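To fix ideas, we close by showing one paired sequence and structure record:
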Amino acid sequence: MTHLNHPAVSSDTAPAVARKWLQLIPFLLFFLLLFSFTCRVPFFWDKDILYSKIAHWLPGHRYSLILPVEMDPGYPPALAYLLAFAWQITGKSLFTAHLLMLPFTLGLVWQTRDLIDRLFGDRYIVPAMILVFADTVILSQTVVFSTDLVMLFFMVLGINAILGEKRILLAWAVAGLLFSHMRGLMVVAALGIFNLYSARDRESHFGLFRTALPYIPALGLFIAWMAYHFYRTGWLLYHPASPWSGCFEQVNGKGFARNVIILVWRMVDFGRVFVWIIPVLAFFRLNRKNLLTDPTIKLLLLLLTATLIFSLPSMLIYRILNGHRYLITFFYLLSLLAAYLLFINPGFRSKRILFILALAGLVSGNFWIYPGKIANSWDANLAHLPYHHLRKEMIRYLEEKNIPFDQVGSEVPNIVPIRYIEVNDDDRSFHRADLKTDRYVFYSNVFNMFTDEEIDELNNSWVVAKEYRCMLVYVKLYRKK
């Protein structure tokens, strides 16, 4: 069952190259088609809108390395600088923002194909890639402006660089991870452990320094940036006045237990429970000795364990840092492990049934929307797409009825100026809802920040002046009686 092949992905013969492109083209075309339908989707969740704000601010302030407190994420937001440069060249538009994401999407497809070829051989590349990209979190990040997508791309690039012994490419991957997302530092730590383990089993054993060398340049730059940031601002990561300081509120024992339950829920949510069936069946039905000695399984389990261990502290200790996308690297590796166990192991006789079940479960995850007062991770599946059209319809209704924005309360992510969401010159914005003073409330089931008490009051004591619905999403304009 051993199929790991470090040095080369495949031969360079014409048939091998043609076969590689035949495997890639359906996925490249799919994501190009998806791009054509979603290339004008507005900035959506708080993390996306933050980068829009930064990119709007930078050109007028000489691309300062120090950002205003209300925009400063506490780590180097390189993607915002890249977006600002792109907008300077092409003009500000949603299309340019999505176009900037497209190379990372297509690059992830390419790198995933190469990684599966290393781990599996090329016989099951297509079904394995289908299983990976059907995950709702990964798929959803390809239609928004996503630092998580960039982080995932550089992680897979880093894994391929380690397996292929390409140290310069690994150095670029580490830089991309550190400067794309704060959680990229956690992924770099996981890659470092994987690198040490992988190098230990090779004939060309690197010394510790040689193994660490690709990590040094980017880590040096990252530390220098953090030191400069601390020198200029006096804080790192977050500060008490930060808009997202509540995310870093530490929990007590009860809150910790609640976070453990939420973590388990996230792991099986959005149809992922059907993917878990494959490794569970493998553990109970297949030869465990063969499983534990298989080098590919050992490498995937090491990566899974390392990424999870480095993600756990922030997800369990703090109050809100437990969204689905915080586990995007874990979900990617889980799908790879499930695909390897399913397709390579001869002990599974019902491969087609299990594959269809897992795939159908993941596709159905885009429709797993919890009712009532249960918060949904709308940025982690495709169910949010109708919201953008409905939001614009409600704004048109407000304009037709001459209802001023200052009389309308709303919630995150609908309380920032329209210019940052839709990339235009409209400076109007809704404010955070106050049911005691507001005359109208713009509500959607996409908003997670309304309390249970506020939802009850809106339903019982306010009148629905207007409502728009599409599929699983609705927006309502409540008017005070």
